[in-house]
Amino acid sequence: MPNIMDRFNNNVVGSNNQIYDYIPVISSSGDFIRISGIDVILNSWNNILETFTGSYDNDPEFGCDLYKYVFEQFDSETEENLIFTVKNQIMKYDNRADIENVEIMRNVAEKLIIIKVFVSYKNQYGEITVSIGGLT
Prior knowledge:
- By secondary structure, the protein is of the alpha+beta class.
- The protein folds into 2 domains: 1-36, no CATH class; 37-133, Roll (Nuclear Transport Factor 2, Chain: A), CATH 3.10.450.
- Helix content is 30%, strand content 33%.
- The chain has helices at 4-13, 38-50, 76-93; strands spanning 20-27, 30-36, 98-107, 112-121, 124-133.
- The protein has a 3-stranded antiparallel sheet with strand order 3-4-5, with helices on one face. The protein has a two-stranded antiparallel ribbon with strand order 1-2.
- β1 (20-27) and β2 (30-36) form a beta hairpin.
């Protein structure tokens, strides 16, 4: 019979073959749903990109300051710096998957940057889209 730590590792954290996580949602069945596989990676990477550096109490360096690029002159150098920042911060905090590509789109009129990150993890492919800035 497995001990409680083995059950925790296999049922909550995941095993060597599969990773799991729980995300908060508003639903009739409860406040959390279980995700697995590439969805865990996508959720983690989204959290990294949308968290402002310095806002996480236990790790003030965690996050990515993408908002600093909203009012920058958008040229090839800025785009390269933005792509470097995205890749660097993701790999710094969660290197379980590979970044296949990063695409940057900019809407100058609305001061909006849209970042798409294409991900591969154990023959699974996905993408996350993060929007920074924007006039509301």
